[in-house]
Every structure is written in structure tokens, then in C-alpha cells.
Amino acid sequence: MDLERVGSGRRVSRSRSRGSWGVEDVFSASRRSRRSNLDDDEEALRLAALEKLPTYDRLRTSIIKSFEDNDHNNVGNRVVHKEVDVRKLDINDRQNFIDRLFKVAEEDNEKFLKKFRNRIDKVGIRLPTVEVRFEHLTIEADCYIGTRALPTLPNAALNIAETGLGLLGIRLAKQTKLTILKDASGIVKPSRMTLLLGPPSSGKTTLLLALAGKLDSSLKVRGEVTYNGHRLNEFVPQKTSAYISQNDVHIGEMTVKETLDFSARCQGVGPRYELLTELARREKEAGIVPEAEVDLFMKATAMEGVEGSLITDYTLRILGLDICQDTMVGDEMQRGISGGQKKRVTTGEMIVGPTKTLFMDEISTGLDSSTTFQIVKCLQQIVHLTEATILMSLLQPAPETFDLFDDIILLSEGQIVYQGPRAHILEFFESCGFRCPERKGTADFLQEVTSRKDQEQYWADRSKPYRYIPVSEFANRFKSFHVGMRLEDQLSIPYDRSQSHQPALVFKKYSVPKMELLKTSFDKEWLLIKRNAFVYVFKTVQIIIVALIASTVFLRTKMHTRNESDGGLYVGALLFSMIINMFNGFYELSLTIVRLPVFYKQRDLLFHPAWVYTLPTFLLRIPISIFESIVWMVITYYTIGFAPEASR
Question: According to Swiss-Prot or TrEMBL, what is its membrane topology (predicted)?
């Protein structure tokens, strides 16, 4: 009986406790709800107040949220709204904004881009799009074969001699004509992720370079490439599109974030500011108040010349580089980020810019399948929600990555085997008698089915004996396939140039004014000088030591002016001084040579003209050279006993 009373008493006590907790939870939830409503009201009031500002100030001012104790996971904290100048966002504000909005890169990126697109659609603005067409594209190269093709000194001398004789019409060596692409035609459409597949040496890189307008001038090109119906000579394709190379060329002394910031400053903001201006005008007329996060992001990414850009922080997060953003990129001489991270930096360099037409060459090399999936997923969201145009070449993509693409271009031996929706590609090969095994990845099957060595294992038509089907036959069969016939019909109708959005194509060679590019280059060179400060200190100490040694060798007490042989000692001292100062600057020569590949890449991408790179490199080294010369002169001039007169 006593035990029963005790047990019932405990049950009553527990039920009362639960009841009291439930009441507390209700009041706590109620307080949080009221606080959330108050925060939303405050945000709406501040955004409404911004709409009353003059247009110039309104486009540069936004609202940023922060928590009182900077703990974003504590929902009970009070949210603080403050007005900020988007050009002067400090690193903490930018980092807090990114951390709050993009906790999980793939999921939160899609949510944010949907908010961005919703804001655009509310006022009826049409985003600029680019449709790339290539028709009957044939690319050939004249090349040597055998030992004649080796990069030896005799072969180089023969090449120079044959070039000179060729100008006179004399042809000595026989060159072999190599067909890289043969009669390739297709369309890369906006708002659709397009995957370029093919076995090695099938011409994938050449096709990407041709579409980006970056082919070598020595190649023979027939056919036509157009953007929205415009030929490549009617605009600047290097600024309208971006080719992302499979080679990772970066300055090792710069961090990941500094590399992307420099790229963002050189590429500018493109049509983002004009889009923001038109958007703000229409929203004001319609009485629409935008969401604070989207408003801040669009304003911050539309400001030109900002040293620390929000678009850089956003790119770092979606590429998974935020964990190493302050780490040196590194090179052969110093440790840095991993090879896979360098590959992502190469991709990020172009994504931070305003270019929405990207040709990406094997960006997954060195990356694991999960990281590749994350990057491609984020790019897919950008393509679908911002109507970008992306043609991406991947080496053996995983099945889940392959399924992210809308269209497939299969290239083999320089010919287009298939181009069209991903859903119909297996149907095409089944019509040719080949079937992908159930446990075989579709991408691996597509790259092997055109190979003479691997084709037989996929033969599925048992009613006929197997025979090797060459690539040319596949290409001809595709033209009679319903996808190929639809593609021919689309290519037969010229693109209506009146439908092309003017900001979609770039007609200026450089996106940023020359003086802004010069300032950016000066900032980068000054950063590199500070990063290599030890070298310059070491050089100064070295020249001091050598100057002391020279002073003891040519000591004044032993230097006479009696005859010509004494004068020879002074000439020897002068010659020694000149040689030492000259060799002391040789390190600058090696640094410049190491950085030349980066300069060539940035010059070809039209980041800046050559003189913008050369001028800061030259001018910022003059004070260092003058200081070293003064140190040498102070120690040696009077110690050796040169003429003390100012006129001498």
C-alpha cells in the first residue's frame, strides 16, 4: 500500500512537472514568435526607409542582420538590423552573412537562388542569355611525325629555316595533316547543363577552345561559331565567355581568397549594376519591398573596385574552399593547398566574374566524387535559376553526377556521335544494337561503346552477328535519329538576332577602366613584395656583408693615386661594385620568369593589358634597387677612397 501511494505520488509529481514544462514551452514559443514578428517589422520599416533615399544612395545602402552575441545557432538571441554601405562591408559582416545563409552549400544555395530569381520575376525583368551554335566545324593541323616532331635543338633550327624558306614559297619538309574536329554541328543552350563526353584524344579540349574563341592561329578552321547569331568577330568572345583550363596556373605566394579577389576586381561586375538599377526602379514603382538578404547580396556584388567582395566569399563557400581561404596556393617550392583544391581555385577564378557562359575542361581531375557532385550541383542550380550557359567536360563522372546534366554531347575521333537530351542517349545506342549493362555507369558505357577494343561486350542484338561499327557510322545514324533530326531542324532556322539581350554579349576588350586595373595590379605587386619581405631583407644583409669585404680588399690606406696601375685598382673596385649590384638583382629575374605563365593566362583571358602588369613590377622595384645601391655606396665609397667632391 505504501509503495503504491509512493508510486502514485511520483506519477502525479511527474505529470505536474510535465504540465509546468508544457506551459513554459508555450510561453517560450510565444515569446520567440513575438520577437520574430518584431524583428520582421523592424526589417520592413528599415527597408521601407531605404526606398525613400536618392537612387545613388539607395543602390549603395542595405540592411544587414546580426545577433547580439554573434551566435547564429541560438534562436533566442535578439536580431540587430543595421544600415551598411555595401562598398565598405568588413570581413566579419561578410563572413557572418555567408555563414547565416549558406550552412549547407547545395541546399542553401538553391534556396537563395530561388529567392533571387523570384525577385527578378516579380518585376518582369528578363535575364540576358547566350545560345552558342557551331555549324560544320572542321579543325585541322599540319604537324610533323616521328623524330622530326621532337622538341630538340636541331628540329627547332630546322623549323626556323623552313619558316623563312616558306615565305619564299619553298617547301622542304612534308607535314602530315591531322583532322582534330570533323564537320561538328550543335547547339549549347542556356538554362541547360551540357556535358561533353569522349575518350582521350577525341577533340574535347579543341572544341571547347573553338567555342570560346581561343584557338591557336596556326590551326586551319572551317565552319562557323555564333553567339546569339553573332559571329566571333562581331564582339569579344574572350569576355563574353570563359574557358576554364585543365591546367592549374596560379601565383604560389597568394592565398586562395587573394587569388579570387584579384580575379573579381579584374573582371568587374559586368551588367550587374545596370540590372540592379532597373530592378530598383521597377520595385519602387510597384511598391515592392525586397528581402534583406537578397537585396544586400545583389547590391554588394554590383559594386566595382571593392577589394574584398561578397561574390568571392560566396564562391569560396559553394566550391568548398572556405576552409582553406587563408592558405597559400603554393607551388613546387613551397607547400600550399592540395591538387584538388587548386583545381577548384582555377574554377573559382572565372566564376567570381560576371561571365555566364562557361566552357569547363575536366574540372574534376583530382577531386573525389562527393566534392565533384557538390560543385556540379551548385553549378546546375546557377544554370537553371540564372539562365547561364555551361558546357562542361568531365573525366568518368559518377552516376549521380552524370544525372545532374540535361544535355549530352558525345565526341569520338573528332566527330559528334550524339548531341541532345540525356534521357534519349541510351535509346539511340539501343537502336544501333548496343545496350548498357545494368551495373555499368552510363558515362563509362558512352566512352567505351565507340572504342574498337571495348565495343563488342555491349552488343545486344542477338539476331545479327556482331560487327565493329565505326564512329562515322554512328554519326550518320544519329542524323536519322529523332533527336538528330530535331537538331538539324533547329540549326536550319537562323537565330533571331533581335531576340538577343544587349548585355548578353561584351563588345569592350576590358571590363574595368585602365586606371582601376593599374591600381589593382599595384595592390597585387605590393602584396607580393610584402609576402617576400624575407628575401629583400636577406639581399640587403648580403650586400652589407659583401660591401664590408670589398672595403677591406680595397682599403683606402692601400689605394694610391701615383700612376696608371693605381688607377687600375680603382677601376677594379668600380667593376666589382657593378657586378655585385647586378648579381644581387638576379633573384628578381627568376621571380619574374616563374610568374610568366600566370601573366600569359591572365593576358589571354583579357584580365588586363600587358603594360598594366609590367608597370607596377618595374616601378615598385626601383626604391628597393636605390636603397641597396645607397647601402653599398655608404659602406664602400669613402672606405675605398673614391673622390669626395660632389662634382665627381
Answer: Multi-pass membrane protein
Structural Rg of the chain based on CA atoms: 33
- pLDDT tens string 349-405: 999 999 999 999 988 887 888 889 999 999 999 999 999 999 999 988 999 999 999
Does residue 13 register a pLDDT over 60?
no
Phi and psi angles of residue 23, each rounded to the nearest 5 degrees, phi first? -65, -40
Give the H or E element holding residue 197.
strand 193-197
CA dihedral angle for residue 433, residue 437, residue 440, residue 444, rounded to 10 degrees:
-10
Per-residue pLDDT averaged across 482-495, rounded?
A: 93
Closest by CA to 296, choosing from 38, 60, 51, is 60
Is the pLDDT at 5 greater than 90? The verdict is: no
Any domain includes 110: no
* Full residue range of the structural domain in which residue 171 is found: 140-191
CB half-sphere exposure, 416, CA atoms < 13 A:
24
As a whole number, the mean pLDDT across the chain is 85
Is 404 within a domain?
A: no
Count of CB atoms situated within 10 Å of the CB of 509: 10
Which of 265, 270, 349, 258 minimizes the C-alpha distance to 306?
265
Q: How many domains does the chain have?
A: 2
pLDDT one-digit tens code per residue, 622-635 = 999 999 999 998 89
**Do the bridges between strand 389-393 and strand 407-412 make them parallel or antiparallel, or are there none, so unpaired?**
unpaired
Beta carbons of 225 and 130 less than 8 angstroms apart: no
Phi, psi of 119 (to 5 degrees): -65, -40
Pairing of strands 389-393, 357-361: parallel
Q: Cα separations (Å) of 120 from 127, 191, 298?
A: 8, 16, 11
Closest by Cα among 244, 250, 263, 260 to 326: 260
460: in domain: no
Dihedral, 363, 368, 371, 374 alpha carbons, nearest 10: 80
- pLDDT tens per residue, range 25-67: 443 444 444 445 545 556 666 666 676 677 777 788 888 876 6
70 close to 78: Cβ distance less than 8 angstroms: no
pLDDT for 558 equals: 67
- DSSP symbols for 98-117: HHHH-SSHHHHHHHHHHHHH
DSSP label of 51: T
* Amino acid in the structure at residue 276: L
At residue 29, what are phi and psi to the nearest 5 degrees?
Answer: -60, -40
Q: Which residue type, as a one-letter code, is found at position 355?
A: T
Q: Which of 75, 66, 65, 84 is nearest to 36 (CA)?
A: 75
The residue from 156, 176, 191 where one domain ends is: 191
Cell of 525: 605587386
**Is 122 domain-assigned?**
no
Q: Please give the Cα distance from 319 to 576 (Å, whole number).
A: 54
Place of cell 560566396: 314
